[in-house]
User: Fold these one by one.
Assistant:
Number 1:
Amino acid sequence: MSGLSRSKSPMGALVVVAVLAVGVIAPYFLSRYQIGLATQILIFGMLAMSIDILVGFTGRTSLGHGAIFGTSTYVVLYCVTQAGMSPYLAVLLGIMSATVLAAIFALLAVRTNGVYFLLLTLALGMIVWGICLRWTQVTGGENGLRGDIRPKALADYKDFYWFILALAAMVTFGIRRFVNSPFGLTLRGIRDSDSRMRSLGYNVPLHLFIGFTMSGFFAGVAGAVYAFFNNFVSPSTVALTQSVESLLMAIIGGVGTLYGSFIGASALIALQNLVSSHTERWQSVLGITFTLIMIFAPEGIVGKFRALRAKYSAKH
Amino acid sequence: MDRRQFLQSTALGLAAAGTGLQPMRAMAQGEPIRIGLMAPLTGVIASGGKEMVEGTQFWFEKINYQIAGRKVELIIEDDASNPDTALQKARRLVEQNNVHFLTGNLLANTGLAVANYVKGTGTPYFIPIIAADELTQRGRIPNVIRTAGYSGSAFPRPLADWALKQGYKRIATISQDYTFGHEQCGGFSQVFTEGGGTIVQQFWHPLNTADFSPYLGQIADLKIDAIFVMETGADATRFTQQFNSFGLKGKIPLLGAMNMTDQSVIRTMGAEVEGIISAAHFAEGADIAATKDFVDAYTKKYEKIPSLYGFSMYSGMMWVSRAIEKLGGKVEDKAALLDAVLKTELADSPLGKPVKLDAYGNPIYDVYIRKVTKRADGKFWNVPVETYPAVSQFWKYDPETFMKEPAFSRTYQGVKKS
């Protein structure tokens, strides 16, 4: 697997260090708004990467991750604004509830694959959305929950950016370790052929369950800090579009590439914000761009880049 | 460099240093007034969003995009009917475009999200459309002002009072099940029950209900004198049509919340809307010169009778513009701008009578009881039948006591227990 061999090359390590260094000094050159966008890209990059665990490494496409992500956001906001807890405790509870929700999703979904997995996760996500919309006393219904919940230590937008950058680095490292671990290899085995894995004696549903739950855990981490970023949550955060958008990010970046998630998130968020200030038909522009990407780089931006590089080094 | 040149440049340098502040100020004045307008140009309520933009542009075109000698730069962003997008766009407008103030948004959730954001930045935010009670009541944010807007529960109160005067004793309500509906029904139910009436039953249905027959079927058996209905957009159209096809029109008087008979709803409809009663501050069919002028000019330009969205944005921006004129164009001082807006009494709006804001940033209007009437050209519009002067968002209650009560919700409707 290319991911494994790459991890040992000094080139790869160098690129990672360089990217991180640019990330760390970026706030000195960017405007406040751009730093906000960068923060958002990092948060959604984490979410897209958590989906990549399933899409890229397990061969299961989930449309329920927006709901898992948003549940964490809801719990954090509820705990701080309604229950008066400390934001740090709220983050823990938020991540925990996202993980538990993912485990419930996993229990129901692990026995399916392909389009059935897609539809089941979609349906489960819609249930969460329905609850958030209708359980007005707790979720604030259509209007959502809001309040100034970001901890004082992170109140400054630059400090918050650095915090998110460090968190994203940790999450990336964690997910990398996870998918490259012996356990992660069994997930890839399931992706390639679950019947073979079963005949080799692996408990495929259990592995899928653990894989899904871990993926939900990481989505929950992203969701919890999204609460700090926006200080606000409404049903649109758990809606289907959220799931679809973050899946798109993973696909545009390149499934199975992990880092591609950040590229995909950058592409989508940058496009959304740049194009929409020029035309109200921005959604059409987005649609055309994605169609073109899917035609000319179906393996995603990072995937395309890797393929081109492989072609180049094979020639020379 | 020879001596003469040296002297010249030194003199120029000193002069520049001595008057250092002067050119700076002149520059600031030469800069345009930047206004960030957010409207839902895509999504479920895009047509309303478009009318918001039209109303805003209609006003600024009238004053040639000039306030107190400064140019106005209007930056329009699409909030996509989505609060997360609205937040993102508000950040962009404030942090990237450095707008002097924000305005717009249609759906309460987008407005509440933006209001929560400007709470931290202190950016003035004017909301002619967002009706969420709490923004000018319990959850008041000093830099959020409802210029030419209205709070959800305010106008159904005079309507309830009017209903009592008609001798209606038993009323049922049907409403969309979200905050805007809870507030409008709450305002109505509170005043109606306190005046001795009975709310027989309250029906709540989700937004975008296609079939109202489960509710309409029950109404016939309730023995009610009238029905209060709160619907917006496509729900309003469907409800009115189905109410008609159930044969209830003409049998049970239909009282609506203001959006129910707004032009955005009734301009595409026929005789089924005739006779519906609603309460609002603006009636496009009012026999007032200022209103007529506005409606005629707007109709000429956009080929439709103005809706509340167009009217409210027009008047809201007029309000802020008048305040900026008083400041001589100095919009940079946020505190002064907010103060000026709060103190401005809007005299020449399409309402044709002066309007001022209360201490909580909500306008005090003369509220019309309106009736949908057919015009000579076959179109329908709202014509005033009665006027309630100077209606406060707190009705006749003391603001302090009122705000100690819980906010309206599905479970709390302010109904007086008898």
Number 2:
Amino acid sequence: MSRRLTGVLLLCGLSVTAVATTQAYLKLGVLTPNGVVGIRWTRPIQYFVTNRDVDGVTAPQLQATVARVFGTWGSVPGVALTHSFTGFTVSEPFVADGINVVGFRARPDLERTLAAATFEINELTGQIIESDIFFNTAFAWSISAGGQAPRYDLESVGLHEVGHLLGLGHSGLGETEIRPEGGRRVLGKRAVMFPIAFPPGNIEDRTLEADDRAGIGDIYSSGAGSAGLGSIGGRVTLGGVGFFGAHVTALNTRTGELIGGFTLNNNGDFAIGHLAPGVYVVRAEPLDDADVASYFDEETTVNVNFKPAYYSSLVAVPRGGSGPRIEIKVVSK
Amino acid sequence: MRALVGVFLLSAGLVAPAAAQTPRWEVGIGALLTGRESAGTTSASVLGPGGDSLTLFRTTNRVTSGLGVESQLSLRLRERLRAEFAFGWVRADLESLISGDFEGVPDVSLTQGVQQFRGEVAVAYRLLQRGRLSAFVRGGAGGFREITTDQALVGNGASASLGGVAHVLVRQAPSGLFGRIALRLEARAVLRQGGVKFGAEGARVSPAFVAGLVISR
């Protein structure tokens, strides 16, 4: 038994709807009879590339870009990924054919979706049957080393999509503003996995940020890779009651690195893992810089009606462990 | 420091002459006051589409002044030269002042308690002796261990110090363990590197003051 999970996104990259989540980063998961199972590749990722050239990018160039993107994720310290290009194919992405396909496809109906990833999952076991990534030819694409406005950078968007393919959901580390013509404009972001893309010509998202590295490490890190890292855990409460969907960030006062997480149950519990030992500032804020639907199931109730707040003390994160659980108290807007 | 020298000179004019040699050994204990250390600033920022940086909030970090105790063992090496071994404990706070929040959260100060255990080997050279007053210049090096009060973080570091010490003899009897007691006043500049990973990396300088009693033979 399987079911296809598709996602629709905003202006940027893709996304699969997060069916369910586990602690720490927003990771993609599926609800099975045995509970939530995180999406994770347990076998080598073998992928095909659709043999179709588009304006500015040939199929071999797309393949080379995808290989580079897998290499970027695989270069995160402690992360063990096995992936291989199987060959070019006439198969299209977004077709349930049992193979993983990456390719261009014309989807002018998805006018705000640059690209997307889909999964076919065994609902009983949570095992991945296949995953595809498509890049929408309704937009112009570039593989130029320095970026090429007004084209979107294939490597930047590809890095985001492959992040989804590997099991990551969206990051909340970004600030946006509503555009008069609709949609949102990115004022700034600190994660490749933020759901809204930089403008055409920008190549900043070719480089993973601390939040991205922590997320992929959380899913794929070997024991040795995460042995020296710690975590922060606790809950966010409003009037003494926990709630779902608060975005919690941890700032390392030494490095300036920001890593985020979410409260992922109605008790308001959160956990942020893969933190370098050190002293952190922890802040909770509403998830109001992108559509909530790009993070959670549409039926999920997310509270965005509260003011941002800091935890009342600095938080010490030990090597290989967690400090005391904390409670961040917020008030309504 | 200038004030301290002034005290030395004033004392020198009031007290009677004393022995030329410093004592063979001294042990002492006193209150240790450490000064505030700047630990730089850290910005929580995101990258804008033009490569510019958008600051979400800023932290101004420091280690607050602390209070503790320090004990010393001092041995005479030469007539004017002494070796000192000092061990101290201080309780202070790591403090971050949060400001400039992008979404308007009021400025707030966040802290985390920290304990510092310090050890130092130093040499002290007697510059002058006038009656009951002895004045030394003192330099030392050592190490320290910091532990956050929740015991989540431990960090080791190295330190060096340079300063001045004044001994004012308050009691001198011909015999007995407590026959010779002096007031010890010390001011020093301390250079520290390492410890708990907090704020900017690099060496930090702060003042430290000790006031206590020493007994000597």
